[in-house]
Amino acid sequence: MRQAELLAPAGSFEALRAALGAGADAVYTGGSLFGARAYADNLDEKRLLEAIDEVHLAGKKLYLTVNTLLKENELEQKLYRYLLPYYRAGLDGVLVQDFGVLSFIRKEFPDLPVHASTQMAVTGPAGARFLEQQGVRRLVAARELSLAELKEIHKTTGMELEAFVHGALCYCYSGQCLMSSLIGGRSGNRGRCAQPCRLPYEVWENGRRLNGKDTAYPLNTKDMCTVELIPQILGAGVFSLKIEGRMKKPAYAAGVVEIYRKYLDLYLERQAHYDSHPEEFRAEERDRKRLFALFNRDGFNQSYFLVRNGREMMALRNEKLTGRKPEPERTGETEKEECQAELIRSGIRGYLYLAPEKPAYFCVSCASFTAGITKEGVQRAQRQPLTEARVRAQMNKTGNSNFYFEDLQIDLEENVFVPVQFLNELRREALGQLRENMLSGFRRKAPEPRETISVKTSSGKPGDWKLWVLPETEEQFRSLLKIPGIDGYYLPAGLWGADRYHSAAETVRKSGREVRLALPYIVRRDGKTDYIRELHAWKPDGLSGILVRNLESLGILRETDLLGLAILDSGMYTFNNRAVKFWRDQGTAGDTAPLELNQRELSVRDNSRSELVIYGRAPMMISGQCLKKNLDRCRAGGSRLVLRDRKGKDFPVLCDCANCCNVIYNSLPTDLAGEWESIKKMGFSGFRLHFTVENGREAAWTAERFLKIMKGTEQAGELPGGGECTKGHFKRGVE
After folding, report:
1. Do the domain assignments include residue 104?
2. How far apart are CA 122 and CA 639, in angstroms?
3. Three-class DSSP labels, 312-373
4. Inter-axis angle of helices 13-22 and 45-57, nearest 10
């Protein structure tokens, strides 16, 4: 029989109790640090320890989110002390995004189950197999995957699969979003997303606007609701059905869990029938309406399980224009009325023996656990002996304990008397012992004292580093070839087919430069071009490196013995030195510094085999949706669009049709030319200029400018035409 777990959000202690009371098998919650929902009512240490015990006594599980990117001081100085009490209490698992955190936990808490967060953006079996080999117990795959892709991952790994089935849906591939960070300094990778995707934008193509008032919210996805897909989702190998919503009220958690519990149980009771007749698995209209009323954004979609993308998945209108009145704001009192988030109590069996002048004996049991108490003090009644009814009434007062009596047998001999306090103490001692017996199996001993890693960067010297360029158009490529002093080129796999690539690579080599291949931001097995299969054909062209932007690409390189050529791009997030070391231990050639680290944070990073992007528009968002398709029609022509915000800022958008995704770039290029004197001391092995929308003349001028600055023959000056620029996070960083 197929097994399944219903996993609920717990953004507060009340929501945790509400979800468990409604039938959740497990909950995921954040603590006071390192969770991707920093603005939720997260649990402090005392409350979280209480929650772990309460969940275990109810026969459920609790997973802790440590799914943000950690800075160097946070990982080395705070993470161990933060996790230690929860580890000792028996925490069931921890969700992680950061490979430094993954490495840390596998070393310092080796028997603590690690779940790979959806922020790792795993899109295929090769990436999943890589994580399995690193000791990851469970995978929360990218939300953009189809049922067929999930099934393929399930077939090739021994990991549990977890998938979101209800709630909010990000517009971008998880873990690739920098939009909130670059616009407002609130990093989604640090749990502080400001959700700029929910704002209105104009979309333009060649001077023609593609959207109007009724489609003014082109990045706003509907919430997902997949209750009617439960048979197909479980059939694809998914074990844990995950509900999103840690920012929502307890009533939401309880209501959604209750309905999914109902239909999950229905399926498990008749799975043979529904596996053969999935079309018969339908939710009742009243349940669909209730889910709709709890929360929705202009309706629901069924996530990406059955479709690649599409307009039907989007809430393109302002919710005020939908005709649906917003729900009234709930007060604390009304919330209590709607959802009684009470202590989850387990039924127990008890046996009490009382006889005059003999020791009292009280035994309680829950599942396979028992506790027995013997206590002196039973007296012979002088006036009014105890009755069974009175004893039962007193013993049933389990109060705020985690138990209630399903069955209580009382063996009461004649003429027995004990004070009420005696019965209360007998009950408390027995239930306390039972509680400890039940929890003892979850307790862990503290691990051995750990060792910290310390890295000191070396000062860079002229000639120790190389200057690389990454052109995204053929015009840029041809113009840059004329510039002496450039050490090497990253050639985007999507710019040329295999034949033209060979010619371009040969041209670069004849000019005396190195050649590296830049793989796409997203690699899916159902893409139109399988660049990975062509790698062995391209390698003879003298590749000195392969720029890797996702875990699936890296997993395939590892399985094809090409990992030694891998250069991790900034979106692979080597945020701390443990992450840097992790990837070097895997055998990668190098990495790119993350775009959210500031000057001080970069200076304490091991940059000896790292590159820094010193010019270029940052890729803010990589999306499985397509603005062109959703607002106009799919033309498979690699369109370039412009996304314009309310302040008139234009964000270039690349429609990568070969991989069926959009890349949204920052409105301004990052330009660190003015910071060269401090940058050159950080020990980087290389620097990169990334050209996106620049024409050939602008690309050549920019490259010459940086070469002169690096040689000390020119000051930074302005960009061509006095264009605006930004220093990104080099100065301000993120919280």
Report:
1. yes
2. 26
3. HHECCCCHHHCCCCCCCCCCHHHHHHHCCCCCCCEEEEEEEEECCCCCEEEEEEECCEEEEE
4. 10
Compute φ and ψ for 579, nearest 5 degrees: -65, -40
286 shares its domain with 140 = yes
Amino acid (one-letter) located at 732: R
Torsion sign over Cα 636, 175, 534, 616: positive
Is pLDDT of 505 > 70?
Answer: yes
CB of 281 within 8 A of CB of 274?
Answer: yes
Task: Identify any residues that bridge with 622 across adjacent strands, giving them in sequence order.
Answer: 663
Q: What is the pLDDT of residues 318-348, one digit of tens each?
A: 755 443 444 433 334 334 435 556 888 999 9
Same domain flag for 350 and 472: no
- In this structure, the answer to whether residues 116 and 71 fall within a common structural domain is yes
Terminal-to-terminal C-alpha distance of the chain: 47
For the beta carbon of residue 712, count every other beta carbon within 10 angstroms: 11
Flag whether 450 is in a domain: no
Q: How far apart are CA 181 and CA 193, in angstroms?
A: 7
Residue 460 included in any domain: no
Domain that holds residue 431: 346-440
566 with 483, same domain: the answer is yes
pTM over 0.85: yes
Question: In whole angstroms, how far apart are CA 92 and each of 257, 343, 441?
Answer: 20, 20, 12
- Identify the CA nearest to 410 among candidates 395, 425, 430: 395
